[in-house]
User: Which sequence fits this backbone?
């Protein structure tokens, strides 16, 4: 990253390039340590000499606009700047989202190494399924700090930034958060008027329109209030994939009273509706390898496969600052997501017989949530120690009703492997399965304290108690009896850290934290797991963070270990689950974000992780790597502002090969995908932007079914031309 050629990495990325680039960044970070210490020593010169240097810094170093570097996370639970927060947190700001033309959460998360996207489970969750540092994070998605467990594909039209918190985060997130959590920060009303919008046209029938309107309410006599409205509509196919369709529209109005006063009250409502022909990809041969088939092959029934999703979220937030030392925030939210799906999942690929099986499945699922969180922030001193305490209470009620359906197998469910016919009609029958109805309640209290000891030392710690109660009713069917299952878990999680600041613009830290995965984490108990206690996890992390070049560039590095000390496994015989397994991921993570010069910005990182199944009932899997956990992931995005109102950019995402399943019988091939953009300012407030994705039209596997049953290819070469206005 010493020259502008790094932007495109010479268009020759391979595993060796990705690894060497990351090691280079690591060495750069390491080399900065003594240099920074030397600088700190030199800065102890007389004050007059220091003051003589300040004008030169301020002339060149006024913080640039459209910054890729973010200084703080949005949650009050993260009370300190990111520089002084003892945990790896990657914040993708709106500027990166817009420059990359990332229109979905999946697109946004491609900029974050250590995050892998998973495929849907048959008729199960087809929305945003992901793993962080090798552990599932499907239930660890949040919107403005509150859990969002709905099974849908999230759009970026109303996002201000996306925060990826790595490692155990249970003290702030509650249940789950083993490898990390993702928080979506939505756009909020502002004091200044905004009239903005985009119109985009692209390959594969892509059409997209957005609008962002913010209006102060001074004309109504409300001098400290504003209303904001974000809307979006999109229809598209997927490059290189036949039949698949993604159609969605949504809107998000919000109003805030008390924009600049001590008391702020915000009301918002979010609606998103999807009408898709979902993509379950291509079959995998014995969960070990890909058949040599065309990327565009669609292994489903076009007349049967359909997915409709409706999400509604209403939020009321009251914030009040009593004084500089005491503030409180209360958030109340009601949310509902309904997903109705008919899909046919590709299975049983037989290369020699040129055949495969389509497995139709369906479900009608409804998730409802009422959540209230109260956070109190206290700042005070005890002698020479300065404290920032965040304490609070969370009360949540959730319900999840799931009606599955099965389909009869017949001649229509068998198709050709190499030349499938998606227009064939399914001729079987659909039968309702056992409906499950789950109700859960969570009552939690937490306290976190950051103690500053002089100018260079900080100690941070926290503890949280959750009482998580779930009840599942399973309906009777012709082949199975009814069941009424119930479980209560009392979860205590903790976090501790020490931070040392060798200079004001740097920190070195060591931290440890815990988290839990209860049986009903996904809001469903089964006969097998209802009697099983929660899984326990612990994360250790040692890292450093540096803000350089006048605080416009952030460099981070960390070593980590996350271990699931008692993984849930099924006893031989397949009817009861017990806590027996041990799973471990060790790694190193490097990150960069911000300005190299006033015109040149970068955003990216590298993660190296080794995973191991340490203990398991399945003797053949002991010592194996975790499924879909690549050793190397690397992402870099960079833009440069040229003269003539022109900005250009490009980037690469590299994912090393990874195993299909825990059995480690075959690997998913590694891949590198290159993107590029160019933006031209026609006149102030009017821009034309071209994004091209997967420039080389690489055929690669992006998402994989957890058991290696099917794999979803990434999109082929795609172009998107966007006209944007903002006044």
Assistant:
């Amino acid at each position: 990253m010493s020259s502008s050629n790094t932007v495109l990495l010479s268009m020759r990325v391979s595993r060796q390039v990705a690894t060497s680039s990351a090691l280079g960044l690591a060495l750069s970070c390491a080399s900065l340590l003594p240099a920074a210490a030397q600088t700190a020593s030199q800065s102890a010169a007389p004050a007059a000499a220091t003051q003589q240097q300040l004008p030169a810094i301020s002339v060149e170093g006024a913080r640039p606009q459209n910054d890729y570097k973010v200084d703080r996370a949005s949650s009050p639970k993260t009370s300190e700047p990111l520089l002084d927060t003892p945990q790896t947190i990657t914040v993708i700001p709106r500027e990166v989202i817009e420059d990359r033309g990332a229109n979905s959460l999946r697109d946004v998360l491609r900029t974050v190494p250590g995050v892998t996207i998973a495929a849907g489970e048959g008729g199960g969750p087809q929305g945003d399924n992901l793993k962080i540092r090798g552990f599932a994070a499907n239930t660890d998605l949040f919107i403005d700090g509150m859990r969002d467990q709905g099974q849908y594909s999230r759009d970026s039209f109303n996002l201000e930034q996306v925060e990826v918190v790595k490692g155990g985060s249970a003290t702030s997130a509650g249940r789950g958060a083993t490898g990390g959590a993702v928080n979506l920060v939505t756009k909020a009303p502002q004091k200044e008027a905004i009239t903005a919008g985009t119109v985009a046209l692209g390959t594969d029938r892509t059409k997209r329109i957005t609008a962002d309107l913010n209006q102060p309410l001074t004309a109504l006599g409300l001098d400290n209030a504003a209303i904001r409205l974000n809307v979006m509509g999109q229809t598209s196919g997927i490059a290189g994939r036949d039949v698949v369709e993604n159609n969605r529209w949504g809107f998000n109005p919000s109003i805030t009273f008390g924009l600049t006063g001590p008391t702020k009250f915000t009301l918002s409502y979010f609606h998103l509706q999807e009408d898709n022909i979902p993509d379950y990809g291509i079959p995998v041969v014995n969960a070990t390898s890909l058949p040599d088939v065309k990327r565009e092959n669609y292994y489903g029934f076009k007349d049967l496969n359909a997915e409709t999703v409706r999400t509604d979220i209403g939020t009321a937030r009251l914030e009040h600052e009593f004084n500089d030392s005491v503030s409180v925030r209360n958030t109340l939210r009601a949310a509902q997501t309904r997903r109705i799906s008919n899909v046919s999942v590709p299975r049983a690929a037989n290369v020699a017989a040129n055949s495969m099986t389509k497995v139709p499945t369906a479900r009608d699922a409804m998730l409802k949530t009422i959540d209230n969180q109260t956070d109190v922030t206290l700042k005070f001193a005890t002698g020479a120690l300065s404290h920032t305490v965040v304490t609070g209470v969370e009360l949540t009620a959730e319900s999840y009703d799931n009606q599955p359906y099965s389909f009869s197998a017949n001649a229509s469910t068998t198709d050709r492997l190499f030349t499938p016919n998606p227009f064939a009609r399914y001729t079987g029958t659909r039968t309702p399965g056992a409906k499950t109805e789950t109700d859960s309640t969570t009552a939690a209290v937490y306290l976190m304290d950051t103690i500053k000891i002089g100018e260079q030392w900080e100690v941070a710690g926290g503890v949280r108690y959750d009482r998580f109660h779930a009840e599942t009713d399973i309906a009777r069917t012709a082949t199975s009896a009814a069941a009424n299952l119930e479980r209560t878990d009392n979860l205590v999680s903790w976090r501790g850290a020490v931070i040392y600041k060798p200079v004001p613009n740097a920190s070195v830290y060591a931290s440890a934290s815990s988290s839990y995965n209860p049986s009903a984490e996904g809001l469903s108990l089964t006969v097998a797991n209802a009697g099983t206690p929660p899984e326990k996890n612990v994360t250790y992390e040692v890292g450093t963070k540096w803000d350089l070049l006048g605080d416009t560039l952030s460099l981070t590095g960390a070593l980590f270990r996350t271990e699931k000390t008692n993984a849930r496994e099924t006893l031989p015989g397949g009817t009861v689950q017990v806590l027996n397994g041990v799973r471990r991921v060790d790694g190193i993570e490097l990150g960069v974000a911000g300005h190299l010069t006033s015109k040149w910005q970068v955003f990216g990182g590298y993660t190296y992780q080794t995973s191991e199944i340490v203990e398991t009932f399945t003797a053949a899997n002991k010592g194996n790597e975790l499924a879909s956990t690549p050793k190397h992931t690397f992402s870099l995005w960079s833009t440069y502002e040229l003269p003539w109102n022109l900005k250009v950019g490009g980037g690469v995402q590299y994912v090393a090969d990874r195993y299909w399943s825990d059995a480690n019988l075959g690997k998913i091939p590694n891949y590198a995908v290159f993107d590029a953009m160019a933006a031209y300012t026609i006149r102030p407030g009017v821009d034309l932007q071209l994004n091209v994705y997967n420039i080389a039209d690489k055929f690669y596997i992006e998402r994989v079914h957890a058991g290696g049953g099917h794999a979803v290819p990434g999109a082929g070469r795609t172009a998107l031309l966007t006209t944007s206005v903002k006044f």
